[in-house]
Structures are given as structure tokens and as C-alpha cells.
Amino acid sequence: MSLVTPPGYYSLNEESVRAFLDGLPEIQARLGGKPADWTVVEVGDGNLNLVFLVDGPDGSVCVKQALPYVRAAGESWPLPLDRAFFEQAYYRAVAPVVGALVPAFYHYEPALYAIVMEKLAPHIILRRGLIEARRYPNVARDVGEFTAQATFATSDLGATIEEKAEWASTFAKNTSLLRITAEVVFTDPLGTSPRNRWTSPHLDDLAREFRADSALKTIVADWGWRFLTDGQALIHGDLHTGSVMVTETDTRVMDPEFAILGPIGFDVGAFIANLVMNFIAQPGHAKAGDERREAADWVLDQVPVYWNTFSSRFRALWETKASGDAYPPAMFGPADAAALDAARTRFLDRIFADAVAYAGVKTIRRILGFAHNADFERIADPATRAPLEAKAARLARQFLLEPGSFRTAEDIVAAARAV
Amino acid sequence: MSLVTPPGYYSLNEESVRAFLDGLPEIQARLGGKPADWTVVEVGDGNLNLVFLVDGPDGSVCVKQALPYVRAAGESWPLPLDRAFFEQAYYRAVAPVVGALVPAFYHYEPALYAIVMEKLAPHIILRRGLIEARRYPNVARDVGEFTAQATFATSDLGATIEEKAEWASTFAKNTSLLRITAEVVFTDPLGTSPRNRWTSPHLDDLAREFRADSALKTIVADWGWRFLTDGQALIHGDLHTGSVMVTETDTRVMDPEFAILGPIGFDVGAFIANLVMNFIAQPGHAKAGDERREAADWVLDQVPVYWNTFSSRFRALWETKASGDAYPPAMFGPADAAALDAARTRFLDRIFADAVAYAGVKTIRRILGFAHNADFERIADPATRAPLEAKAARLARQFLLEPGSFRTAEDIVAAARAV
């Protein structure tokens, strides 16, 4: 890979983004006034992109442009630009069923690998809100609803063979980000990648112990195989609390550039893992007079809210909107109702089991791998942070090595409290 | 779908195939002489294609052309021509690793949807040989070797994410034949499709009983979901004994137009099911002085030969040629050898379990669905045929409802004898 970019591509800045938007009549009309009247702020705090918020007299937009390298690693980790294509393709695929649970999509500019979409305000990133002990009464239900709607509609339960084949063919090409997930989530954390880091020396022993645990490593590899092969639905691919923006009343899922056809439990497990990590990290953010006990309890309680919303919505969609080629209605009559209901329960139990395992994988990578979580990173004192990270890692190992202990979302809650 | 064919397409006949081949210098050179010197015979006995065998003074070729409808159903079941593209794409993908276990590929003519390849002689179709009680000492080992090499090389164990993505993107478009498999293998046989047929009235009760078995139907649907989602490797997709041509010493796998990214066990189970059905059918072909007992025993003994060859070759390839992104060598060191070995055993046990279930699905569809097997169909007397078909159907139900009873290939042998 190289940093040579395709003809017509240039990195936008706060000036050139005005000229770009000025050339899009619909966007210009949305903003109102002249480019000189617009305020432009670059706010990208992610790893991979530039993000501009643009306000005009009549309205606002957000411009997200892919960079040809992983921003956090500097230019030493080049990265193809086409992930912006997959991001907008995902928004287009799921928008019909998830509605305002994603930002409104306005325009995609192929040459610039830039998406123009709704500017979310006064939303903040859910992870930041949770770290600040804020509560969002709708968020677990909203993300559960999002996960159910998006995965059902793009699975063989909600889509025909021909519809799913279009997504399969398109998203199969999202290999750059698939490789990143395969490497930084599954391969590196228990291997010996120079990209790995951990709170050292506090967790040196834990890192050594995990990397010497042959059984754990092969189980993670089993789930890596499943991740690479199990094309159940179009999944978001990076559904952590940093990919969700919130207000007290509104929830939006964003940053779907890792979208692939994959296991539904990978999205479910990612969200659960990030709630659980925030719960475990809460004592690290305690201040005099605020032990963070209630905040922690609230976050952990969102795990069953999320799972129960997901699973009941997914089941309801299956009961009322089955229009795919799996479990085809033509096979079943009224006499099969009880058996089909049992099949749905089996199906959702398997998704739950997958989610528990992927939650384990996704947690370990945040403690021992390349990309860490602000939930832990914002705990400045490593002597406070390390034991909390160790708790998360031990729970993750339970998720992977004791799958029989996790049958319900309440089992996750109990184990997270006990760890 | 319609029978309007694309510009440039015409159905070949014994005359026009000469003109077509005359325009291909390499083929002309291979055949030698002039088109008028060539003998041409159309031998297609399949459902979907024309097949010409062409002999010249210096050599021979086979021309296989896709027809725009399912031949056995007449023009009432139209079918896109592009399956010829997928057939040649499959040959090209696996040829580097399976060598002469497939026919040599010479030319693909996109406008005609025609493949020019090696003419196999004096090969006959394996199914026909087995029905005639012939023995092929190499065939189970050869097809086991074929299955292992082709699936390993195109899985995430033998291919990189980028290589597999090319196949995923290409073969995702093979929706016409995927839909046929989904419908005629999984949906129709236990449903109420007008395409279904069975030996009637002898098996009317059995058909009714199976179609009233809600548990069986949901289990078949579970495996239908797995078939549609589980993209483990590029699979042949129709690996029965009618897709294998043999002599006493040579084995060739052909007709891979159903190729998709799918579960490895679907290929393995298809071949096992067709051996087992031939075993069960043998008494129906008995004549005075030939009870077919030895022939039947020989066929059934090929089940463990096939599975053991497949599994030991697959394991050996994994041990020596792992070059994919699943179970990446970078994760494992010498201290992990025993755990990795156990993971390989788990992995192959899962493929076996998948194969047993798909063998069940594939057997039921040959008794109650659209396309039946010559193994049973050649038994002219329905009163002789029906009880043998019923045995096969009952064994298939065991495969699906009692998975715990089938841990080894020998368990299949024992159950097939006992049924």
C-alpha cells in the first residue's frame, strides 16, 4: 500500500471544504447563505478520518472524509480510502429499516471519499457520556432496536437470496478493514504484535499469562474463523459505545465503515462488551463524594435492556416480516407453530452465545491489543487503572472458556459484579 | 426470467459446434484435420446443459454449453446462462491444487456460455458404475483428496482475506443455482411444492409423516440457514456420484456450476449421502445369482475411506500449508502444539457433524423432492423400490434428529446396515 492517492483526491481542510460544498446545490441550499458565511470546525477524534461540522444560516451538515492512513499511527500505517464507500453503502442498505437511528445521509463524493450527512447536535459520543456518569434512558433500547432491524433486514430471514447477494458481492471487497479487524481483534492481542500495548509493568504478568494460555488462544482463533466465515447478515462491524452518539432523548449509530457480511453476534457482543467495560471502569472515575456506584449499576443494567430489546424485536420481525429464503414460510403451516417457535428460541440462543464469546474477544483486545478504550485510558493513574483492566480481562476469559455459564443477559450481569 | 437470450448466443448443434471450434486455433490444433473430419456426438444426460464430444484425427475435446432452461422440465423452467461462467471460474480456482482430479480446462466462450475442456474417455459416471456393481478402488480416496484440497485452498486456512474476497465477490452472483439448491434441497421436499414427487402410493404415508414432522422440518430449516450463511470455502455445491467420472484407475470431478462459498460439510455430506443411497439401493438391482451383497458392502465401506482421506488430508494441509488469516501461525508457538492439535480435531468434528446433517437433507430430497437418483429410479418395480427408498429416508431422519449418534464414519456404516 502507498500514500499515493487517486486523481481528484485531496485532503479537505476548513477552507477547501467550503468550495466542495458550494459545488453541491442541495447542500448549499440546506446551509443557506454564502460559503464565507459558514462556520467550519474539524472535530475528528477517531483514527481514520477527517470530520468537519459546517453551519450556515439555514442549516448544518457534517462532512466525513477518509484519510489514506490510520491517523493515530501517523503515515506509517497506510489505509485504502474506499472504506468511505462501504460506510455510505451501509447507511444506504439499512436506512430503510433503521430510520433516524443513523444520521441522515445527504451525498457521497466518490473522488474525495467524502460523505456529507446530518450534523448531530447537541449529541455527544455515548462512551464519553458514560465516562462522565451521565444516563441515557433510551440508549440501550435504541441500539437494541437498531441492531435487530439492521441485521434482520439484511439476513436470509429478511432478504431474498438475490438481495443478500448484492450486499455479499459489494461488501466482500471491504478487505482492508476486514483485515484490520482480523488482525487487531483476533490475531494480535494474544500473539506478539509490536502494535500491542498494555498498562505496564502492572499487567505484564497478566499479559504473559494470557499469551501462554494455549486453550484460550485456540478458542479465540475458533471465533476468528467464525467471524471470517459466518455471513449471517450485513453487520456494522465496530458497534462499540464510541460509534453511538446521544442526547438524553436521541440515539444515532455511526461509523459503519467496517461493515461486512458477518455474524450478528459480533455486533451484539461488541455493544455488550463496551457496556461491561464501562461498568468495570467506573470506580476509576470516582471522586470525593461520588463513588460512581449508582452510575456503574445503571450501565450494567443496560446489558439486559439491550439484549432483551434486540432479541424480542428480532423475534417479532421474524414472526411478522419473514420474507427471505431461510426458514421459508412455504415450509411451515399452523401445526408447526410450536416447533418454529422453538427454532426461533434456539436461533436467538446461538446469537447470544456468539455475542458472549465475541464480547470476550473484544474485551481482551482493548486491554492487551493496539486500540484501547477511553473508559480505561481516562483513568490517569496506572495503579488504579490496571486492576480494573485485569478484572475486565478475567471476565473476558470466562466469557470464552466457560460458555455454559452464560445463558442469559442476567448471567453476564452477575459475572460482571462477581469478578 | 425469460427465454430471450443475449446477443451472440445460440444453442450449439452437431454442425455448428464444428464451426465454433474451427474458430479456436488452439482447439483446432488439438483436434487436427478439418472440421469435416471430426466426429461430434451430443451426450448430455443432465438437466441443464448440452454436452458434445468431439474427436479429431489428433485429439478430442468436450464442449459443454448452458441451456436457458432446466432441460428435464422443458422450457417451463427458465434458467440464466451465467452458470457456465461459474463452472469455469470454479475449475480455474481449484485447478492449481486438485490437478488431474478435474478435467483439463481449455477455453471459455462467454457469448455462447460454452466451456471447451478435456474429453474424458473411457470414463463413465460413477453413479452408473456403482449401479452396475462395478468397483473403483481409488475413487473414495480420490474424491476425498479432491474435497480436502479444493476446500482447504479456498478457505481462510489456505487463502488470505484478499484472495477469499475475490471468490466471495464472484460467486455471490451465482444466485440462480443457489436459489435452486435452497428450494429443491431445503424448502420443497418437506413442504408442498408441485415439483415434488415420490413413489406413490407406496410412500404416500411416509411423505405425509415426514411433512407432518415439525421438529424435522425446523431442523432442516436450521441447516438451510447454515447453508445460506456459512461461507467456509468455495464448495462444489453438487458433489454427488453423478458429478464424478471414473475408470478403474482415474477419477474426475465435474459439473461444478453450483459452486458458491458455503459450508465444507455440504460437499462432504453430499458424497457420503450418495454412497449410502447406492448401498441401500443395491438389493433392488439384484439378479438371479447376484444378490449384490458384496457390491453393497463395498460401496458402504467407501464412506469411511472417503471421510478418513478427506479429514487426514485436510489436517495435513493445515499442519503444513496454513497461509490464511484464520488460526494464523503468528498466534501460536511450539508450546501451543497440543492445543492447536485439539482445535484441529474440534474443527474436523464440526465438519463431520455438518456433513451428517447435510447428508440427511440431501437424501430426503432425493426421495420426496424434484430430482431423484438413478440408484433408486433404475429399480423398475415400485414395490421393490419403495421400501428401499423408505429405508434411506428413515436413515436420513436419524442423521438429522439424532446427531449425537454419529461421531465417526463407522457410525454411519453401522446405522446404514441397521436401518
TrEMBL record, chains A, B:
Name the record gives this protein: S-methyl-5-thioribose kinase
SUPFAM superfamilies documented for this protein: Protein kinase-like (PK-like)
InterPro entries recorded: Aminoglycoside_PTrfase (IPR002575), Kinase-like_dom_sf (IPR011009), Methylthioribose_kinase (IPR009212)
Annotated ranges, domain Aminoglycoside phosphotransferase: 40-285
Entries under Pfam families matching the protein: APH
Primary enzyme class: transferase
Record keyword Manganese present: no
Assembly behavior: Homodimer.
Family: Belongs to the methylthioribose kinase family.
GO BP annotations listed: methionine biosynthetic process
EC number(s) recorded for this UniProt protein: 2.7.1.100
Keywords recorded for this protein, A-Z: ATP-binding, Kinase, Nucleotide-binding, Transferase
Keyword Amino-acid biosynthesis: no
GO molecular function, one term: S-methyl-5-thioribose kinase activity
